[in-house]
Specification:
Layout (H helix, E strand, L loop, with lengths): L1 H15 L2 H24 L5 E7 L7 H5 L5 E6 L4 H10 L4 E8 L2 E7 L6 H23 L3 H8 L16 H31 L2 H5 L5 H32 L7 E4 L2 E4 L5 H28 L6 H24 L4 H6 L6 H10 L5 H29 L9 H9 L2
Parallel strand pairs: 1-2, 1-3
Antiparallel strand pairs: 3-4, 5-6
Helix pairs in contact: 1-9, 2-9, 7-9, 7-10, 7-11, 7-13, 9-10, 10-11, 10-13, 10-14, 11-13, 13-14, 14-15
Length: about 400
């Protein structure tokens, strides 16, 4: 074990002190802080300006209409200025024009915009202008206001969610993407390192002194540590942004998903670490075997393509599980080793996977890692000293069978 720790410490020191690690994590930190900073300061910018024209008999109050419009400000304008206002919309000086019109005794809206309609603005103004029209009709018809209020009162709806997952959707999205990104990136790094050492003939010097399995797992565990360090850097970026007051710790939006950090319990964090480590080891062992069978880094892409397909499949099923965690496809994939780490974790957050399913999937993953480890050891041992041309699938099978 002394030689293993020597190999591990050597590769760890080399990885941590490399420019790619330092610059990469610095860029990651800047990007995360920059995203929250941009979101924070852009939200303080002036509201979108929309002209409001009312040339009808319906009485409107611009201040009342502006209530409930967080990102838009309505400004009263005259009908005679309509041509000039439309030109301002074309030039980008104005974000839109809303006109109140009379349509056979009922109010209607005309919304002019340049490219994209603000559906929230339309929905809010439609409701408010409709209520103004209703109030006018009630007054003109001399209907008892109390009777009218009862007739127009909306039906009360009580929502009862047996499993409310609205607060976990954003967390699932972030963690699924994070797991996919780190496993794919660090796995490729393992394969590239092994192939580069093999191409430079360093293996010929190292193998007589150190067992190949030590060399393989030294690289795998170093990349696992580096992957966890990447996660720590990302968390640091969140903490710095939170300390600067750039987002609300209880709930904030990221890429359109609402994230409620109160759902991020120690149990969820533990589950993420467990499934990330198991998923990383499963794919890392495969990448190590792939890196050992090729002699040139140019050939690595074609040989590692099946592994990339597997991790991409896990990612896409994981994305599907955000909105359909109970579907048959997602449930089946939670037991398949190559998709289990991402998919099962997603189902845990959505409340679809219990302790029994967690236990079963962890056992399956451990068994799969043990089997793959046995085969990868043989492939690595027989592959690192093989300098023949392109390796075919049958050659890999022979390496796995050879003691």
């Amino acid at each position: 074990m002394g030689k293993f720790w020597t190999v591990f410490k050597f590769h760890l020191r080399e990885a941590v002190t490399s420019k790619s690690f330092i610059i990469g994590n610095l860029i990651t930190l800047i990007i995360i802080i920059g995203i929250f900073g941009f979101s924070h300061f852009s939200s303080k910018e002036s509201k979108d300006k929309v002209a409001f024209i009312n040339s009808t008999s319906y009485q409107t109050n611009i201040e009342q209409l502006n209530k409930g419009l967080d990102s838009i400000k309505l400004v009263s304008e005259e009908q005679r200025n309509l041509g000039k206002l439309k030109q301002q919309v074309k030039d980008g000086e104005l974000d839109g024009i809303v006109e109140v019109k009379d349509n056979n005794g009922s109010p209607s809206l005309s919304y002019t915009y340049k490219s994209f309609a603000d559906q929230e603005l339309v929905a809010i103004l439609t409701q408010k202008i409709q209520q103004i029209g209703i109030n006018k009709t009630i007054a003109e018809s001399r209907v008892d206001p109390n009777v009218a209020a009862k007739l127009l009162a909306p039906i009360s709806v009580k929502n009862i969610a047996l499993k409310d997952t609205t607060g976990t959707v954003g967390i699932v999205y972030v963690f699924v993407f994070l797991m996919y990104l780190l496993i794919l990136g660090r796995g490729q790094m393992i394969a590239n390192t092994i192939t580069a050492e093999k191409a430079s003939r360093v293996m010929e010097i190292m193998i007589p002194k150190v067992k190949p399995i030590f060399m393989m797992y030294g690289k795998i565990l170093v990349q696992l540590v580096i992957g966890l360090a990447d996660i720590v850097v990302m968390i640091l970026g969140f903490l710095v942004s939170y300390a600067l007051g750039w987002f609300n710790g209880n709930q904030f939006s990221l890429f359109g998903f609402q994230i409620d950090l109160s759902n991020l319990t120690p149990f969820i964090i533990a589950c993420f670490i467990i499934y990330f480590v198991l998923g990383f080891l499963l794919y890392a062992i495969g990448y190590a075997a792939v890196g050992a069978v090729v002699s040139r880094t140019e050939d690595l892409g074609s040989v590692s393509f099946p592994i990339i397909l597997c991790i991409m499949a896990a990612f896409f099923v994981g994305m599907t599980s955000i909105f359909s965690p109970e579907s048959t496809l997602v449930t089946i994939c939670s037991y398949i080793p190559v998709t289990s780490p991402i998919v099962t974790f997603s189902r845990i957050l959505s409340g679809e996977a219990g302790y029994i399913e967690m236990g079963i999937t962890i056992v399956i993953l451990l068994a799969s890692i043990a089997i793959l480890n046995h085969l990868a050891n043989r492939i690595y041992l027989n592959g690192v000293m093989n300098y023949s041309g392109k390796v075919k699938f049958k050659d890999v099978v022979q390496m796995a069978q050879k003691h």
